[in-house]
Amino acid sequence: MFSPQGPSALELLIQALSSVERGYDLLAPKFDHTPFRTPEDVLDACADALTGLGPFDGGLDVCCGTGAGLRVLESLCAGRISGVDFSAGMLAQARYAYPEAEYVRADARALPLAGAFDLAVTFGSLGHFLPAERPAFFAGVHRALRPGGVFAFPVGAPPPLASRAYWSAQGFDLAMRVRNALWRPPFVMYYRTGALSALRTDLVAAGFAMPSVTPLTALGRRDDGSPKYGLVLARRAATA
Q1: I need a labelling partner for 92 at 20 to 30 A (CA). Which of 23, 25, 75, 104 fits?
Q2: Does residue 111 share a domain with residue 50?
Q3: Range list of β-strands (E), the chain
Q4: How many domains does the chain have?
Q5: Rounded distance, CA 19 to CA 11, Å?
Q6: Longest Cα pair distance anywhere in the chain, in angstroms?
Q7: CB-hemisphere CA count at 13 Å for 223?
Q8: What predicted TM-score, i.e. pTM, was given to this entire model?
Q9: pLDDT tens track for 80-136
Q10: What would the pLDDT profile of 27-71 be if each residue is shown by its tens digit?
């Protein structure tokens, strides 16, 4: 799962026993050498799906981490691109990779941005928000967008009940719940808390129009022919 440049088992254990912020500060220098970074083919598929929705001026990568999503924004946005994250370590890595972008250190549940962006994206972040926290997260993104702005993020199709992926995700979430019941501070990262129906409900409650899902067919199909991934597109209503 990890390249030789990735973290050791001990480093991962220390990270898992830390808070989310501290854990990512520790992991940041080696994060891009782990399977936790969003794969290039997912980024490319999302960029392709967003190309026809522009033009976009300003772009925002929410929970930007080391900046994988900034490459998508660079290819789509004519104006400034920005990344926001609450891990100073991850932001330092992003600044090194994308020095032309602007950065804000902030908690995504209380984004200090308003009406400045035409496109917002997030990759691999939703598992870090409990269902009760998602409304604040989505409301902050809604505020950060200009009228008519688009919020986009990829989602994977639910794995079949009999698949290894399904039971691996279930096992991971159970381990995290046990860890958080026994150890403080908590480390919030769950795979099975973001059903598409719940995400849509929370996006609409935050002020977005009813989201659509664009199939990312370049990333493959399941045995039943349905796409393995889709891109959720939520738009802030345009003013008159």
Answers
A1: 75
A2: yes
A3: 59-62, 81-85, 102-105, 117-121, 145-156, 212-215, 229-235
A4: 3
A5: 14
A6: 56
A7: 5
A8: 0.93
A9: 999 999 999 999 999 999 999 999 999 999 999 999 999 999 999 999 999 999 999
A10: 999 998 988 899 999 999 999 999 989 889 999 999 999 999 999
